[in-house]
Amino acid sequence: MTDNASDKPQTATGGQGQAMWGGRFSAKPAELMQAINVSIGFDKRLWSQDLAGSRAHARMLISQGVIASEDGEEILKGLDAIEGEITAGAFPFRDEYEDIHMNIEARLRELIGPVAGRLHTARSRNDQVAVDFRMWVREACERSAAQLASLQKALVAQAEVYADALMPGFTHLQPAQPVTFGHHLMAYVEMFGRDASRFRDARTRMNECPLGAAALAGSPFPIDRQATAAELGFDRPTANSLDSVSARDFALEALSAATIAATHLSRLAEEIVLWTTPMFGFIKLTDAFTTGSSIMPQKKNPDAAELIRAKVGRILGSLTTLTVVMKGLPLAYSKDMQEDKVPTFEAFDALELSLLAMAGMVADLTPNTEKMAAAAGAGFSTATDLADWLVRELNMPFRDAHHVTGSAVKAAETKGVDLAELALADLQAIEPRITSEVYTVLTPAASAASRISYGGTAPTQVRAQIARWKELLG
Ligand code: ARG
C-alpha cells in the first residue's frame, strides 16, 4: 500500500480500504466484509439438503461412538425443531451468520445449548457445502429429466393425432420434401429424450458423497463415510478428500446438459413463433399462451415461445460464469466457489420454467391442417419423388434423373403450375419414356407415404416411433 492511497476517498468500494482503515475504522471494513461474504440470501435454498446432511452426520457420529447418543439425540431433535421453524416460515435467517450452514448451527445452539457444538465434529463447511450443493444439483437433474419426459409426452400426444397431417419439410427454411406434422414433433421427442438421458448420466457420475472429507484432508475421527453416503442416497463416498471439497464439475456438467436442452427448447420455440405468424399460419395457440398488444388490437403474440427462445442466454451465461469461476482455482476449497450457487439456481429456475411452459404450449396448440397440407405441395416439393420414379421405372442413373427433373421444375415454373399440374405432353417433351403413372408419386401424400425407410416420414414409420416412445415414457 503506497502513501498515495490515503489521498483517495475512503468509499465503501475503495479497493485499498482494508489495510488502510483496519485499526481506526473497524466498523466499515466489517460491514464491507459481511456484504461481500454473506451468502444466506441465496444459499438458504440449500436448507433441506443441509438438514439432511447434518442428520446423516449426527447419526453416524452416534453409531461410531464419536459423540454420546444423548448428545446426538438432542442434536437430532434440535434439527427437527429447525425444520419446523423453516417450513412454518418462522426461522430467523440472519446475515451475521453468513451462510445456511452457520445459520442452522447458530440456531441449533440457541435451541439446545452448547451441545450443538458437537455436530461439527469431523466436519467442515467445505465438505458440508459440497454435499449440500451436490444433492441440490442432483435433485435439479432429476426434476429436469422428469419435466423433459412430461414435455415429450405432450409432444407424443399431439404427434399421434397428427401422424398423417402433411406439412412442408424444410431445409435452409426452403420447402424441401413433404413430411407429416407428427414426424416433425417426434423429432423433438428424440432431442428431448437425449437431453433427459444427459441429465441421468450426469446424475450417475455425480452420485458420490463428499461428506467426511472435512476441511480438505479427511478426519482423524473413526467416521463411517459409507454410512453417510448410503443414508444420503449416494452410490459411494468420494475417494479423494481434496477432490471432494474442490470439485464442482458436477454442476458444470449439469449446466452443460441444461444449456443443450435449452438450445433444443429455443429451436422449438422459434418454430412456434414462425408457425403462428399469419404468413405461415400453421398453428394456433389459445389465449392461454398468447398476449395482446396495447396498441395493435389485432395482435396475438407468442410471448411464452419468445421467452423460452431467449432463456438459453441466461442458461449458457450460467455455464460460462461457473466455468470462469472454476478455471485456474488451486486445490482445494476457495471462497470463489461460493459463486457457484446463484448461476446454478438461476439456470435451473429458467430451464424448469421453460420446460413447463413449453409442455403447456405444445398441449395448447392446434394445427391448421389444411393450410399446412397446401403448403406441403408448394415449392415443387415432390421433385425428388419425380427423380426417384425415373430411377425406379426407367432405370435412369440418379444424376440424369436429377437433371430431367430440374427441367421439369423449370417448365412448371415457366407455366406457373405445380409439378403435378404439368401435362403429360410437357413431361414427355423432356423425357419421352415418362408415362401417366408418374402422377401417382407427385402428390405430397404419396410422397410422404412412400418414405417407409426406418425413421422416415411415412405415417406407418411415425406411428411405430410413437408406439416406441409411449412404451418408453410409460
Ligand atoms: N458459504 C460457503 C460456500 O458456499 C460455505 C463454505 C465456506 N467455507 C469456508 N471455509 N469459508 O462456499
SSE blueprint:
Elements: H1 17-21, H2 27-37, H3 40-43, H4 47-63, H5 69-87, H6 100-112, H7 125-161, E1 166-171, E2 174-180, H8 181-206, E3 208-209, H9 225-231, E4 236-237, H10 241-246, H11 249-275, E5 283-284, H12 303-326, H13 341-364, E6 366-367, H14 369-377, H15 383-394, H16 398-415, H17 424-430, H18 444-450, H19 459-473
Parallel strand pairs: 3-4
Antiparallel strand pairs: 1-2, 5-6
Helix pairs in contact: 4-5, 4-7, 4-9, 5-6, 7-8, 7-11, 7-13, 7-19, 8-11, 8-19, 11-12, 11-13, 12-13, 15-16
The structure holds arginine.
Q: Strand percentage, roughly?
A: under 5%
Main sheet: which strands, in order across?
A: 1-2
Q: If helices are DSSP runs of H or I spanning 4 or more residues, what is the number of helices?
A: 19
Task: Give the low-pLDDT segments.
Answer: 1-22
Q: What's the helical proportion of residues?
A: 55-70%
Q: Profile the largest sheet.
A: 2 strands, antiparallel
